[in-house]
Design goal:
By secondary structure, this protein is of the alpha/beta class. The protein has helices at 22-32, 43-46, 50-58, 70-84, 99-102, 112-135, 163-185, 200-203, 208-218, 226-237, 262-268; strands spanning 10-14, 36-40, 61-62, 88-93, 139-149, 188-194, 248-251. It has a seven-stranded parallel sheet with strand order 3-2-1-4-5-6-7, sandwiched between helices. The structure holds 1,4-dihydronicotinamide adenine dinucleotide. Residues 14-15, 17, 21-23, 41-42, 45, 66-68, 94-97, 121, 148-150, 194, 196-197, 199-202 line the site of 1,4-dihydronicotinamide adenine dinucleotide.
């Protein structure tokens, strides 16, 4: 069911890698709600080519950009505004990668070069995106910027490793830039803290299936799917949430507020 929530709105969607990606579902949903947008991902991720299918289905242009490169971001914003014929109303930052996690480094044996890369890709890139948007005056008033995050920013989940630090940085940037962008342009900035979800990034965390099962039992409403996350992101881009800013919004079926569930108690007493 579509409600025309994004009719006439323009934006940029970062991070659609394949059809499991949360950004992919957001793009499909945004299209149904009447938005026009450009799609972007790191040049290296383009090689898989799946994004072309999404671009075709949503009538979008793909503009490659490494989200850690200010030069790439500058080009992305210039070309997006040219292609879409005006300034932007929404941006989705759906980016995460840790070389330490990917290469199986223990938390007590982190490679610090890689740690900095994790922070740059998964945290600082959010600041870079907004700084470039501000400098290019790319946002319309009452625009909305959303990044995706995970509860490991607040609580320890051992296998999440240095991604936890990156997510803390990301969430802090949402507050700091949220203040700035509100004053500058009435633009709101939030993070959505999503349930574990079966995607390329999600599956990179070791023991992911056990983790998914635990979260399902620990969430009164069950885990939130990628499609449900997309629904939430759409409401955050719509005019129905104009005064929500500088928040970390949990979209996790109640996981973050639950001590323990009966389901988990039963499982543990088996
Ligand atoms: P995904 O693997 O489909 O998406 C991650 C994206 O980041 C990919 O498209 C990848 O190409 C992109 N990326 C990596 N390095 C980049 C760079 N230098 N420049 C530009 N893009 C780059 O996985 P998913 O799950 O859709 O991830 C999206 C977001 O959701 C991430 O921020 C992730 O941390 C977050 N998230 C995921 C959860 C999960 O369990 N899958 C749970 C909570 C949050």
């Amino acid at each position: 069911m579509a409600y025309n929530l994004l009719k006439g709105k323009k934006g940029i969607i970062f991070g659609a890698l394949d059809e499991n990606s949360i950004a992919w579902k957001v793009a499909e949903r945004a299209k149904k709600e009447g938005a026009e947008f450009t799609l972007t991902n790191a040049p290296i991720a383009m090689r898989m080519g799946a994004i072309n299918k999404l671009a075709e289905a949503t009538g979008s242009t793909i503009i490659p950009a490494d989200a850690t490169s200010l030069e790439d971001l500058d080009n992305l914003f210039t070309k997006s505004m040219e292609t879409l014929g005006g300034k932007l109303d929404f941006i989705l930052h759906s980016i995460g990668m840790s070389p330490n996690v990917r290469k199986g480094k223990e938390y007590g044996d982190l490679n610090y070069e890689w740690f900095l890369k994790t922070i740059d890709i998964s945290g600082l890139s959010f600041h870079k995106v907004m700084q470039v948007a501000e400098k290019k005056d790319a946002m319309n008033e009452w625009g909305s910027i959303v990044a995706l995050t995970y509860i490991a920013a607040q609580r320890t989940f051992p296998d999440y490793s240095d991604m936890a630090e990156a997510k803390s940085v990301l969430e802090s940037i949402a507050r700091s830039y949220g203040y700035r962008f509100a004053k500058l342009k009435k633009v709101r900035v939030n993070t959505i803290s999503q349930s574990p979800t079966v995607t390329t990034a999600g599956k990179g965390i070791s023991g992911f299936n056990a983790f998914l099962d635990f979260a399902e039992r620990q969430s009164p409403l069950g885990n939130a799917s990628a499609e449900e996350c997309a629904d939430y992101v759409i409401t955050m881009f719509s005019d129905l949430t104009k005064k929500v800013t500088m928040q970390n919004l949990f979209h996790d079926g109640g996981f973050s507020s639950t001590g323990i569930t009966n389901e988990l108690m039963e499982k543990l007493s088996e």
